[in-house]
Amino acid sequence: MDCFTDINITDIVLMCSSQVMKTEIMNNMLGYAISRDPGPAMFINPTLEMADAHSKERLSPMLRDTPCLTKLIQNPRAKDSTNTIRHKTFDGGFLAIAGANSPVSLAARPVRYLFCDEVDRFPFTAGKEGDPISLARRRTQTFWNRKRVYASTPTIRGLSRIESLYADTDQREYYVPCPVCGHKQTLKLGGKDCDFGLKWEPIAMGKTHMTETVWYKCESKKGCRIEESDKHRMITLGEWRAHAPLKNKVGFKIGSLYSPWKTWQEIVEEFLEDKKLPETFKTFVNTILGELWEEPGDKVDTNPLMARREHYGPAIPDKVLLITAGVDVQDDRLVVRFNGYGTDWEQWLLDYFSLPGDPAVPDVWKDLDNALARTFTTESGVTLRVVSAFIDSGGHRTQAVYDYVRTRQNRRIFACKGSSIMGMPVVKPPRGKNKKGVLLHTVGTDSAKEILYSHLRLVDPGPGYCHFPFKGVQSGIHIDQEFFNEQTAEKAVTRYRGGHPVRMWEKVAARNEALDCDVYALASARNLNPNFKALTDTREQENSTPVAEQEPTLTERVIARKPFARKKRGGFVKSWKK
Question: What pTM does this model have?
Answer without folding.
Answer: 0.83
